[in-house]
Amino acid sequence: MRPGDELPPLTVPVTRTLIVAGAVASRDYQDVHHDTEAARAKGSPDVFMNILTTNGLVGRYITDVFGPRAVLRKVAIRLGAPNYPGDVMVLRGKVLAVDGATVDVRVVGTNRLGHHVTGTVTLTVPAPGPALAQEAAQEATP
Questions:
Q1: Is 134 strand, coil or helix?
Q2: Residue-wise pLDDT tens for the chain (142 aa)?
Q3: How many CA atoms lie within 13 A of 97 on its CB side?
Q4: pTM over the 0.90 mark
């Protein structure tokens, strides 16, 4: 990985189930994340995704690209356009800096309304040393 490298995109279908399950899993019981009528009464056309679900999806995106040994050190995001049921969010990333095992990535998630999430993620990626190489060989052995 080098600064300027673009990460492969991740497409996330935004379903009502994803929105509600993410809110419940993160213990965010705000009615706008699970009750359509309450969301409409508060001026929203429908329920919408909470920031904790978005944060989890950003983390998943980074670890999908960098692998399960990647350690998220800092995730700093801002929300923009809401994610509503039926939307499709596409996460994209670009490597900003690499310093040894530390990588900074700019992340942007878009939907039909524009930017849903923007931010940066700092992570460390362990170098594949002898122990990791041996472990990988053992995993590959049937």
A1: helix
A2: 899 999 999 999 999 999 999 999 999 888 989 999 999 999 999 999 999 999 999 999 999 999 999 999 999 999 999 999 999 999 999 999 999 999 999 999 999 999 999 999 999 998 876 555 455 555 555 6
A3: 6
A4: no
